Amino acid sequence: MKKVMLLVASLMVVISSFAGYTSDMINRMETKEKSVEDSFGGSNAEMKEASSVILDGWNDELNKVYKLLMSKLSKKEQEKLRNEERVWIKRKERVAKGAADEFCGIVNGQKLCGTGYGLEYTQSLINSTKGRAIELSKRYEKLK
Where is the signal peptide, in residue numbers (predicted)? Predict the structure, then answer.
């Protein structure tokens, strides 16, 4: 009976460790996002600061899972992921600029952007980075 109990307990530990790098990461970031949102007010400057803190958090998570994933890959697969990441970074920046440009217009031949430009740019970066972190964490979980 003790052996069965020990086996069940061991199995539960193993299952919980596999259950979730992705869900753990999302939970960490949801907690961080809530904390950041609660600590900043509603001014434009405070919203920009909060967005920057959240983006930094997702960048940290992305870098962490990228390194974990790279540690599990062969040299050939590492090079493939590195190149994929370079393409993703360029696309992320292009998408963010396109989203933010919605807050710009041409006045007397000059491009002028509203106060929403920076917030939209950062929000787009957050969305892309979050999506990429989740994508890579799922790939990492498959290799674990």
Answer: 1-19
Distance CA 122, CA 48 (A): 8
**H or E segment and range at residue 117:** helix 116-143
Q: Distance of CA 27 to CAs 63, 81, 124, Å?
A: 17, 25, 20
Q: CB of 117 within 8 A of CB of 45?
A: no
| pLDDT tens digits, one per residue of 102-119 | 999 999 999 999 989 999
Long-range CB pairs of 33-41, under 8 A, 24+ apart, other chains included: 33/57
> What integer is the mean pLDDT of 32-46?
90
Q: Which residue type sits at 24?
A: D
> Tokens for 68?
């974990």
For the stretch 44-48, contacts whose Cβ atoms lie closer than 8 Å and that sit 24 or more positions apart, written own/partner, are: 44/115, 44/119, 47/119, 48/118, 48/119, 48/122
CA distances from 18 to 15, 110, 111 (A): 5, 54, 51
* pLDDT for residue 2 is more than 70: no
Higher-pLDDT residue of 3 and 101 is 101
107: which strand partners?
A: 110
